[in-house]
Amino acid sequence: MWAPVLVAGAFSYSMKRRSFLKNAAFLTGAAVAAPALKACRLAPDSPSGAAPELPVSGNFHFRADGSFTVLQFTDTHYISGDPRSRRALECVKEAVEAVKPDLVIHTGDIVFGRPDVESAKEILRPLAQSGIPWAVALGNHDSQFGTPREAVFQAIRELPGCVNLPPKEGVYGCSNDVLTLSGNKGVERVFYLFDSMDAVVLKGEEEIHCYDYIRHSQIGWYRSHSERFTEMNGGRPVPSLAFFHIPLPELQEALAKGIGPIAGNNGEPPCPSRLNSGLFAQFREMGDVQAIVTGHDHDCDYVLPYGSLYFIYGRFSGGDTIYNHLGLEGYIPSNTHTAPGTVSGCRLFRFREGVPGFHTCVRLQGGVIQQPLDL
Ligand SMILES: [Fe+2]
Q1: What is the 139 CA–ligand 1 centroid distance (Å)?
Q2: In-domain check, residue 110
Q3: Which of 39, 46, 187, 196 could lock 244 by a disulfide, CB 3.0 to 4.6 Å apart?
Q4: Which residues surround ligand 1, an ion (CB under 5 A)?
């Protein structure tokens, strides 16, 4: 898998290390949406009583002290039986046991080799055994090792504690889910999970071969929920966060304008799809999404404000099966695939009932907290 690019020798070092691993995604085909099975439904408060129900994957509530903590893992790139993955498993176990969050979201690239389903089960086992609800937004690598995306997703969904619903009929991808967080006055937060899929090839005079993009069906799905939550909230958008694997092209645009992170490490350029299908514009139009939370670019764990919302990277949670160069003190320049001294971690989000903003920080394996921000 590595040989063609390494032998070609036409890429810079950084291209070899970063882009090829990602470009491996382009070797696989895309999945199609499977039929919907059943859905947990949250009945909205409807003055007329005639409003349709909203399917949500989970409706959570603040703790008695008014707090709610979401723990985000990303890019564990786990391979069962591979000692290079030991750190990933330890990272996940340690964080879940120490933080005791109310919800865990894994933003994809869960696995990075065969046996893929067994690898997924193994790295997600600390979640499945924790008694804490959790969900995934699949990454581009999660269906590249033999098992179709729907089957990987189904195997994950069968694990205890997983709240993802089956793929939604007519909505592109698998892991598109809506989670809500309610207080005494109703839904105060919505967490949208999108499946940013793998790769796409558009044939034609100029063939386009790039990371996949968020499709119209997913945007329509998001909009229908967003509109309904706004309606339920008396016409005011409900503060929301969007979680998915591959960042949006607008992050490149922000960086090109000279807008930089307000916290965190910026160790590599973002690698979004070349195609922009307008999800960012929809978020702005609907006015509810405060932050776009992704993974994918392992050497980034920053927070960057762009207009009314934030681009937020999770902290790489994997081991040494793939490139990673974030250490305790930040990005470690290195000519090697992985650098000695790298530290895996996760990102936390803390919400308080009645408070529209949120707190976020990076937590390194072992407990060091970095980048505490109240946004
Ligand atoms: Fe990754």
Answers
A1: 7
A2: yes
A3: 196
A4: 75, 109
How far, in Å, is the centroid of ligand 1 from the Cα of 309?
Answer: 24
User: What is the share, in percent, of the chain residues with pLDDT greater than 70?
Assistant: 86
Residue with tokens 């995934």: 136
- Omega before 115 cis (within 30°)? yes
Ligand 1 centroid to residue 208 C-alpha, Å: 22
Q: What contacts 151, CB < 8 A, 6 or more positions away?
A: 117
The chain-wide mean pLDDT, for the chain, equals 87
The string of DSSP codes covering 76-98 is --B-TT-GGGHHHHHHHHHHHHH
Structural domain for 184, as ranges: 3-33+52-374
CA of 344 to the centre of ligand 1 (A): 13
Residues in contact with 220: Cβ distance below 8 Å, sequence separation at least 6, in sequence order: none
Q: Is residue 45 part of a domain?
A: no
Q: Does residue 108 form part of some domain?
A: yes
Domain count for the chain: 1
Structure tokens at 335: 């000519």
Q: Mean pLDDT throughout 102-111?
A: 98
For residues 160 and 53, give the distance between their C-alpha atoms in angstroms, rounded to a whole number. 26
Q: Are 231 and 190 contacting, i.e. CB atoms less than 8 angstroms apart? A: no
CA 77 to ligand 1 center in whole angstroms: 6
Q: What is the pLDDT of residues 1-49, one digit of tens each?
A: 222 222 222 223 233 334 433 433 332 333 322 223 233 333 333 333 3
Distance 160 CA to ligand 1 centre (A): 24
Give per-residue pLDDT as tens, 198-208: 988 899 888 88
Residue 223: CATH number of its domain: 3.60.21.10
- pTM, to two decimals: 0.88
pLDDT at 53: 60
Ligand 1 centroid from CA 116, angstroms: 15
Q: What distance in angstroms lies between residue 195's CA and the mean position of ligand 1's atoms?
A: 14
| Distance between Cα 123 and ligand 1 center (Å) | 15
Residue 258 lies in a domain: yes
- In this prediction, residues 102-131 reach a mean pLDDT of 98
Distances (CA, A) of 37 to 117, 166, 167, 197, 221: 21, 6, 8, 21, 17
Ligand 1 centroid to 54 CA: how many Å?
32
